[in-house]
């Protein structure tokens, strides 16, 4: 029986509720909502505090701050997948005249373009976007803080540039494109650029007394692609499922996996955190998480996805500072995974297999080091050291009889099965060629083109 969609156990639900209750009380948040997603389905929601005198629910909007960047990044990857740009393109190619046009689109997505963290004053998050009507106002006279591509430096103006890039190539406002290309296909009807009732007001909590001060909720104008959106835990649960699994109406699972791949190290002392293409990456308790945190005056937000566990955690609060909801969202994933580990899909034998592919599987040697080649779903291959440590990669079949590396050391490299007689497709395979490495059926096989040749006297005692 498949139990992957059953409700969480009582002990799990209590542990999750205790965690959010503690966060709301200790963090003194006026209200807090949270959710857990398992295998694409919301399996738990919880709430503490009140909004307008009643408990918030899964349909109550909160401002999500920089989680907005994940939506903007998806719009940019859609442009790439549609052939309208290359991630290696300099910004100047598509959005000329910014003064930072040498920065590439990848660098902007990964915060390695060297741009300033914030706009010139006054602080953009607490003032109307009308104060910054042009990109020149957003960037200022000295927009760069580091050489492009040299270091990770989180930049909010960088995502304004990406939003303007979307507008330039789509010919419509960022908000319009977002609604048509992402929100409507995924059914995110409660994710909006401006608050739509019911929604939580944003508050600041006095540091030394239990009193509140309302925070302004400004329209951010050109800075909208960096942090404008409002959403609910119900919508963000669907968004988290999309970030884990993809949706062909918006982006493929393969492109989402690319977004979750590290593109920059953040330089944190722990060495655990990184950034992909529009997604923050972190390692918590040995678990790799992808997602984003967010904050704007009056609001905190966190969303983390563990693709390996099939889990996501989301937390939203209406306070400027207080509960660390990014850590809270990660803890929701951890608690669920520890209480109820993912149940693997049942193993099933392949319905059919190409005999020539089966003949490729088994042990291969890179020099004296043994590797094993396995056949995976479809015609995919996996090459890994027999010892379990060392360079391992998965490979996607290409249309020309080769395979492209998907991850690890050989990501992007081409794997070829080279036959002894090139004119005969049915001829015996001599060796595997991978990024100039030659893998043979025997260690330093004399009949294969081992780089540097093989001593004709062969193996011998010392």
Automatic annotation (TrEMBL):
Q: Which residues form the DUF7586 domain?
A: 354-441
Stretches assigned to coiled coil: none
Q: Which domain of life is it from?
A: Bacteria
User: Sorted alphabetically, which keywords does the UniProt record give?
Assistant: Hydrolase
Q: InterPro entries, per this entry?
A: AmpC-like (IPR050491), Beta-lactam-related (IPR001466), Beta-lactam/transpept-like (IPR012338), DUF7586 (IPR056008)
Show where the Beta-lactamase-related domain sits.
20-335
> What PANTHER family does the database record attribute to this sequence?
D-ALANYL-D-ALANINE CARBOXYPEPTIDASE (PTHR46825:SF7), D-ALANYL-D-ALANINE-CARBOXYPEPTIDASE/ENDOPEPTIDASE AMPH (PTHR46825)
What name goes with this protein? Serine hydrolase domain-containing protein
């Amino acid at each position: 029986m498949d139990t992957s969609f059953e409700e969480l156990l009582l002990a799990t639900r209590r542990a999750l509720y205790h965690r959010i209750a503690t966060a709301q009380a200790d963090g003194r948040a006026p209200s807090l909502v949270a959710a857990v997603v398992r295998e694409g389905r919301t399996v738990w929601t919880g709430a503490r505090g009140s909004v307008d005198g009643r408990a918030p629910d899964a349909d109550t909007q909160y401002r999500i701050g920089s989680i907005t960047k994940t939506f903007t990044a998806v719009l940019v990857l859609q442009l790439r997948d549609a052939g309208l740009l290359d991630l290696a393109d300099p910004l100047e190619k598509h959005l000329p005249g910014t003064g930072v046009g040498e920065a590439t689109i990848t660098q902007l997505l990964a915060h390695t373009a060297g741009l300033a963290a914030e706009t010139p004053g006054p602080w953009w998050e607490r003032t109307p976007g009308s104060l910054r009507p042009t990109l020149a106002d957003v960037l200022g006279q000295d927009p760069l803080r580091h050489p492009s591509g040299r270091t990770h430096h989180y930049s909010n103006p960088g995502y304004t540039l990406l939003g303007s890039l979307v507008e330039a190539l789509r010919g419509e406002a960022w908000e319009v494109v977002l609604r048509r290309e992402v929100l409507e296909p995924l059914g995110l009807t409660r994710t909006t650029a401006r608050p739509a009732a019911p929604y939580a007001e944003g508050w600041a909590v006095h540091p030394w007394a239990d009193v509140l001060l309302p925070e302004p909720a400004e329209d951010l104008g050109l800075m909208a692609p960096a942090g404008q959106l409002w959403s609910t835990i119900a919508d963000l649960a669907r968004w988290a499922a999309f970030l884990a699994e993809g949706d062909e109406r918006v982006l493929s699972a393969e492109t989402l996996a690319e977004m979750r791949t590290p593109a920059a190290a953040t330089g944190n002392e722990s060495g655990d955190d990184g950034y992909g293409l529009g997604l923050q990456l972190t390692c918590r308790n040995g678990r790799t998480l992808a997602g984003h945190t967010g904050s704007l005056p009056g609001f905190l937000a966190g969303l983390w996805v563990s693709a390996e566990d099939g889990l996501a955690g989301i937390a939203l609060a209406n306070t400027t500072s207080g509960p660390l909801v990014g850590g809270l969202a990660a803890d929701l994933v951890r608690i669920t995974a520890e209480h109820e580990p993912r149940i693997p899909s049942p193993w099933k034998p392949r319905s059919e297999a190409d005999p020539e592919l089966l003949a490729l599987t088994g042990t291969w040697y890179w020099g004296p080091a043994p590797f094993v080649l396995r056949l995976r779903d479809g015609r995919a291959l996996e090459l890994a050291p027999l010892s379990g440590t060392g360079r391992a990669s998965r490979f996607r079949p290409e249309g020309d009889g080769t395979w492209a590396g998907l991850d690890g050391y050989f990501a992007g490299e081409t794997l070829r099965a080279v036959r002894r007689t090139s004119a005969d497709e049915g001829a015996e395979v001599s060796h595997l060629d991978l990024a100039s490495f030659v893998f043979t059926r025997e260690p330093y096989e004399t009949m294969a083109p081992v780089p540097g040749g093989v001593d004709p006297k062969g193996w011998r005692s010392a």
